[in-house]
Input
Amino acid sequence: MELLPTKVFEERPTSTAPCNVIYAEFPVPAKPSKIAGAIDIDDLVAEFEQSNEAAEAIAKGRQWVAKSFYHNQPPAIALLRLQKGWSQAELAKRASTSQSYIARLELGNVDPQISTIIKIARALGVPVARVVEAISPENEQ
Output
């Protein structure tokens, strides 16, 4: 699917060096429609976590994942998060950032600022050095 700009503007600002500035607005593609009767997994987990008993069971499940699948791996943000029994959304909330940012961080797709590293370390209750070690490229496989 090719997205073409809906508006294109060209400006010639006054300055000592002539230049053109191009600004284009592109439409945002619509989200794919949901399958009838389907439930988004994030919505389902959020609904289950409304019950304290279910929230504890989900947290224990995340801790089991950390222990079972990450025990022979180098330190990682996902491991630190799962050891707490937290979702990406929970870590994001506690570190004052977004779930999508935590997801990109866990994939190694962002280079966080020191202030963000400090917030994540405080949220996880670990030293800043542990978070730095967890996001260091030499730990990637």
